[in-house]
Amino acid sequence: MKRLVVVGTGYVGLVSGAMFASLGNRVTCVDKDPSIVEALRAGRSTIHEPGLDEILQSTIADGTLSFTTETAEAVAEADATFIAVGTPSLETGAYDFQYVEAAAHEIGRALRRPKRHIVVLKSTVTPDIYTRVQTILAGETEGSGAQVEVVSNPEFLAEGTAIRDFSQPHRIIVGAVSAAARQFMEGLYRPFTKREPGVLQLTDPKSAIVTKLAANSFLACRVGLINELARYCDAVSADIEHVRAGLASDPRIGHLFLYPGPGYGGSCFGKDLRALRESAREHGADLSLVPAIEESNLRHKLYMPRRIERQLEPLAGRTLAVWGIAFKARTDDIRESPAVDAIEYLLERGARIRAHDPEAGRRAAQHFGSRITLCGNKYDAVDGAAALVIMTEWDTYKSPDYHELHERLSGRIIFDARNILDVLEVRQAGLTYVGMGRGCAT
Ligand SMILES: NC(=O)c1ccc[n+]([C@@H]2O[C@H](COP(=O)([O-])OP(=O)(O)OC[C@H]3O[C@@H](n4cnc5c(N)ncnc54)[C@H](O)[C@@H]3O)[C@@H](O)[C@H]2O)c1
User: Which of the following is catalytic: 29, 221, 233, 268?
Assistant: First the structure.
């Protein structure tokens, strides 16, 4: 049993804390937002993540997981503290480290006594912040005899599959200097690595940090490339779905992250690529591909709304139904979601939006307010609309009742930004299909 503190109870902190607690460790999760702590104490998850509620309730009942707004109290009793606060983008594209730095100061102030403690950087950062956190902790604990080591342990979980990703990881990257810190981290993760000990990879802290940035750049690059190829397929009347199948059967390429869509979104790819670009610039590393991926994605996010505009103009006064606002299925996260950009684009041109999302409604209401109509039922969103636009690949959208769509849609056209519908079925229902890169199929 280890005594752990996790600072920040967002998608990463809450899942990590709950999963460590489920193994019997004593975990205190800290969040500075009292409303989050209050909800979590009552066993109510503040994020949508399949399977998380059950783990929260059982670990709270067992007494292994607790919540507080007070970092100092929790840290003073613990063996290790994880920093899992957000690292959003500054306007320049660099990370805004104010939350990591504030957390490091708070942790340091709680460690002013002769004791060993490990501070684990789980937030996604650039290498400079590792040094910065070390400096902050050294300054806060100076002369106290505290022995504090900073370890990098970037998180690779994906929203929607976070519990599985955490409990059956492909890799756990630990960047630590001392043998004691490495041993501590190996012990902590052993229950998850027992079957495949090779998944835990030990390295130095900065290489661990760069591994995370590198992984997200690779994945974003694949998504960006398949999306550009989809646009090319539209231009030359080819079908990207056939092209994708051909590509995916090459074992050097494979099928994962090779699905054309409305552009990548979420809280990670965009900001991590921007931060990598800025960090490279500051350090004089001449990167051209990374900024290009980002630019390509920004352009691609407007590809579907522009097609809708071309097909239906003028958009002013027209009602459009949008299915899906989350940046991907199985999450309620709408940060940098292509659906949000598409809706903003259509609203700017005077369209009226009736939208549905199985989980992201609350966050969408916070973002759009009364500018769009959120419907609890997906078919209600379609009532009288000039078109249906599918932006998120939720299962519930994959086999719709075409008869009902035909009855309720006034415009009889479906824009499927995720290619989740069967073109023939749509056509047989008397509807027009516009997919992503399905030039000859449409
Ligand atoms: N969301 C993902 O899928 C994912 C995956 C891998 C890595 N990451 C990285 O993990 C980090 C956290 O991401 P997230 O999506 O969980 O963030 P989030 O924004 O959902 O949550 C961060 C939480 O930290 C809290 N917080 C901020 N400062 C605090 C402080 N000083 N003390 C206590 N609480 C504080 C906030 O109130 C918030 O609840 C980021 O660096 C992100 O890039 C995220």
Answer: 268
